[in-house]
C-alpha cells in the first residue's frame, strides 16, 4: 500500500527518478507498509522499520535497519556509521542501470523474514560509561554542566561519550566537545532529531 507523502517523494524530478521508481516497485511487492519518516519512504512490518529508500547528491539506494543480519552473498552492502546506526547496511546505486532487481528483491525478502524471526540488533548493555578525558575536564570545571549531563539516561550519556571518542584527531575531539556542550546545557541529546519521527 502506498503513502501520499512517499508519492510526492518519488514524483520529484531528480536524476535518480527512474531508479527510485524501480526500487519502490520492488519495495511494494515485498508486502510491507509504505510509510514516510525522516523525509524518506520507509517500509515497515507491524510498525517496525525494515528498510528505507533515499536519494543523495551523488547516489541513491536502500538502507536496511537491521542489515547486519543480511547474508549479503553478492557482497554489495556497505556498513553504516558507528554508534546508533551500527546495525544498518546500505545498498547504493549511481544509476538505474546498476540495479539488479533479482538481488535487491531477495535482500528485501530476507530483511522481512529476519524481522519475522525477531532478528533485531540491540546495543550492548554496558553498565558503566567511560567519560572521555576532555568531557570529564569540562564537567569538573562547570558544576551546572555536570548537573545537566547526569540528567540524561545512561544510553544518551554514552552517545555523547562515543561521539567524542570516535573522532581520530584531538582537534576533531575538541570541536565535537564544543558542539555538544550547548546541547548538554539545553537537555538535547545527540540523536534527538532522529527520534522525533
From TrEMBL:
Gene3D superfamilies: 3.90.1150.200
Species of provenance: Muriicola marianensis
Pfam families in the cross-refs: DUF1801, OmdA
YdhG-like domain ranges (all copies): 18-112
Protein name: YdhG-like domain-containing protein
Record-linked SUPFAM superfamilies: YdhG-like
